Amino acid sequence: PAEDEARVDEIKRLLEANNAVLVAHYYTDDAIQQLAEETGGCVADSLEMARFGARHEAETLVVAGVRFMGETAKILSPEKRVLMPTLEATCSLDLGCPADEFSAFCDAHPDRTVVVYANTSAAVKARADWVVTSSIAVEVIEHLQARGEKILWAPDKHLGGYIQKQTGADMLLWDGACIVHEEFKAKGVEDLKSLYPEAAVLVHPESPAPVVELADVAGSTSQLIKAAKELPNDKLIVATDRGIFFKMQQAVPGKTLFEAPTAGNGATCKSCAHCPWMAMNALDNLAGALRHGSGEIFVDAELRRAALKPLERMLNFQR
Ligand code: 13P
Ligand code: SF4
């Protein structure tokens, strides 16, 4: 619509005027992803977003995603102004892991190396030895296991369980989950697979174990897009937030993509596989943030120093 076009033009002008760059996650609106692409920003998974923001020379990073992504950008680049379309966009994993309870859990298990998923608050990261995202989690835990370390993992029990299975590491798991991925049902994926036996199944490991077990490839959002390109299959069943279809379909224009069902009867739930917090990012509030400097992320200096250590470990990790 003409309104959106005017908004897009305004955002482009404001990005330039503010020496700002747009960093967007694959789960945000198509229009935001397209804008990030057209303006020299990036559309990426959470690890690549962090790397891109830290390396970019812009004075202002506009992070379209959820709160932990903006916080991570600020922790890595305290000298930059970090804006988000809305500060309300949180994540069920972050909400399900309050810093004080988590800290008590760590205190009760002092013999364990604390590894937290990036989907956590700065305060939880500050208590960790390592931060990981789903694209690097298995490698980091393998590395720690090889050093004989026992792990305390938080907050996603499904991702934790998946890593445990892959690596055989001794992991104590926090009981958290992603409300979006938890809705995928193995029965639904099996039913769809019986309709299209030639289809490959791509699954984000925040999904429950029975769904991950059906996967031809399990991985982070960018790993799933890569797999869509590399697999020979013309049909793909995809168990992750439907926001990913924008870039995935661009990457494989000739292939047919199916949303993995979120109901056991094989029906696709039209409103389920989309993160309600990612959906809060829109052209309007994005323009508003740039216009008024609203939605700015601040991280307490001491907290920042503590959270930076485990984040830098992740960014510097090389096998
Ligand atoms: P990725 O690191 O795979 O982009 O995952 C982030 C996320 O929030 C998935 O729900
Ligand atoms: Fe958090 Fe799940 Fe939303 Fe990702 S999709 S931001 S893990 S609630």
UniProtKB/TrEMBL annotation:
Its cofactor is [4Fe-4S] cluster. Pathway: Cofactor biosynthesis; NAD(+) biosynthesis; quinolinate from iminoaspartate: step 1/1. This is Quinolinate synthase. Keywords: 4Fe-4S, Iron, Iron-sulfur, Metal-binding, Pyridine nucleotide biosynthesis, Transferase. It comes from Halomonas flagellata. Transmembrane segments: none annotated. It comes from the Bacteria. Its EC number is 2.5.1.72. One of its GO terms (molecular function) is transferase activity. SUPFAM superfamilies: NadA-like. The keyword Phosphoprotein does not apply. Pfam families: NadA.
